[in-house]
Design brief:
The chain is of the alpha+beta class and about 230 residues long. The chain is built from seven helices and eleven strands.
Length: about 230
């Protein structure tokens, strides 16, 4: 792996091989200090943020759905990626053991982010790549979506419809990559009876956009781990 030179508003930066932390379908990711640098592959078979979209997203402030903070260029002035805040992934089990107060705050901030983006008609998606080795999220003192590569503007939807679609994307992630995954790893050993999770699926299907509200009103335990255990065992 060779080093990369990039230009940002703060001047030139060198991305050394030891800064490398991973790669996806769109590019390679490097870490320098508090920021992750997403450096695009020269070509990609999937869509990715354009310079115009990146510049719009840089003006939006969010808490959990992390957006580009700075555009990156080659020394020839070619747009080649962006930076986002770096959030260390402490793992699903860490998240499940966070105090309930932090989970309630986390759900509130996720909801606010859905609303902020929805009001600008930005839709979020691809939070769950088929290849689970590609992590677009980090569990820390909250749930962070750290890869903003899959957003698009849809003016065919009203603001309310866009907000709802964003909430539904979060709900699907919470169901499949948090609750279901935790239950299967903790209790199922690959053979878990998912009918026991039907109550969460019913909320998603009958009251789309309200799963986080439901959990917030229903949880009495000290953390999500104990709450999910009560609900499914």
């Amino acid at each position: 792996m060779i080093l990369k030179f990039v230009i940002s508003r703060n001047g030139p930066r060198v991305l050394f091989p030891w800064n490398y932390i991973g790669r996806g379908t769109e590019g390679k990711v490097y870490r320098k200090g508090e920021f992750a640098y997403k450096y695009y592959h020269k070509s990609s078979y999937c869509s990715r943020l354009t310079l115009e979209d990146t510049e719009i997203l840089e003006t939006i402030t969010t808490n959990r759905i992390l957006l580009p903070r700075d555009t990156l260029y080659t020394y020839l002035g070619e747009f080649r990626g962006y930076t986002t805040q770096y959030i260390k992934n402490l793992g699903l089990f860490h998240y499940m053991e966070l105090p309930t107060a932090l989970i309630l705050q986390d759900f509130h901030l996720l909801t606010c982010d859905c609303e902020v983006l929805g009001r600008k008609n930005f839709l979020v998606y691809d939070f769950m790549p088929r290849d689970e080795r590609i992590r677009n999220y980090s569990f820390n003192q909250g749930l962070y979506f750290v890869d903003p590569g899959k957003y698009h503007i849809d003016f065919s939807l009203s603001e309310e419809e866009a907000i709802l679609e964003n909430k539904k994307s979060i709900e699907r992630f919470l169901y499949y990559r948090v609750i279901s995954k935790y239950v299967n790893e903790k209790f199922g050993h690959g053979l878990y009876d998912y009918d026991r999770l039907r109550q969460f699926k019913d909320i998603m299907e009958e009251h789309p956009g309200l799963l986080m509200n439901y959990i917030c009103s229903d949880i009495k335990e000290d953390n999500l781990k104990e709450y999910v255990k009560r609900k499914v065992l």
